[in-house]
């Protein structure tokens, strides 16, 4: 069975460098066999490719792709902390969508993250989820994603 690293490679995907925190927090933290990430915005090589609110400034299709980028960034944070190959399953996804006042399709945007995780982890990606519309996100990002994943308990660094 291939590792998650090999699976990503076979999909022509690579984990980016973990984004430096924008304030006083860490990108990911482990408690027992769970790793939770801080919210990850769709930075690409340290740059936010587009800003604004979904429904006015940002098209839904673009926002879905940005949610995929956020999910990769979150996986990179997990990888830096414990190694992506230690992931047992995806437990929870929380997505925040900077939304125009009349935009109500936040679930479709967050599907970008959920579907990427399903492509990588298959049935190990079945997760609970929240998709929340917000007025604004850090750096005027259109979307932000948090992950909670279960990891193997015998991995170095287990509490």
Broad CATH class: Alpha Beta
Record the strand order, biggest sheet. Answer: 1-2-5-3-4
Tell me roughly what share of residues is in helical segments.
25-40%
| Class computed from helices, strands and strand pairing | alpha+beta
Q: Give a count of the beta strands, DSSP E runs of length 2 or more.
A: 5
Q: What is the mean predicted local confidence, pLDDT?
A: 94
Q: What fraction of residues sit in β-strands? A: 15-25%
Briefly note the CATH topology name: 60s Ribosomal Protein L30, Chain: A
What is the radius of gyration?
A: 15 Å
What's the structural domain tally?
Answer: 1
Question: What is the H level of CATH, i.e. the homologous superfamily?
Answer: RutC-like
InterPro entries: Endoribo_LPSP/chorism_mut-like, RutC-like_sf
Protein name: Endoribonuclease L-PSP/chorismate mutase-like domain-containing protein
Domain Endoribonuclease L-PSP/chorismate mutase-like: 7-148
Pfam families: YjgF_endoribonc
Account of the protein in words:
By secondary structure, this protein is an alpha+beta fold. The chain has helices at 4-10, 60-82, 106-121; strands at 28-31, 34-37, 87-98, 128-134, 143-151. The chain has a single domain (2-15, 35-149), classed as RutC-like (60s Ribosomal Protein L30, Chain: A). Helix 2 (60-82) crosses helix 3 (106-121). The mean pLDDT is 94. InterPro entries: Endoribo_LPSP/chorism_mut-like (IPR013813), RutC-like_sf (IPR035959).
């Amino acid at each position: 069975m291939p590792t998650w690293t090999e699976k990503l490679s076979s999909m022509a995907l690579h984990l980016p460098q973990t984004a430096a925190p924008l304030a006083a927090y860490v990108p990911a933290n482990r408690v027992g066999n769970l790793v939770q990430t801080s919210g990850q915005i769709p930075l690409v090589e340290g740059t936010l490719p587009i800003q604004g609110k979904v429904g006015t400034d940002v098209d839904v299709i673009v926002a879905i792709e940005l949610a995929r980028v956020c999910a990769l960034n979150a996986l990179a944070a997990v990888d830096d902390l414990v190694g992506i190959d230690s992931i047992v399953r995806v437990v929870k996804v929380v997505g925040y969508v900077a939304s125009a006042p009349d935009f109500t399709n936040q679930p479709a945007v967050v599907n970008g993250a959920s579907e990427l995780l399903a492509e990588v982890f298959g049935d190990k990606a079945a997760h609970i989820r929240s998709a929340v519309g917000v007025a604004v996100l850090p750096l005027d990002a259109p979307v932000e994603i948090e992950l909670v994943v279960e990891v193997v308990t015998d991995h170095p660094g287990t509490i």
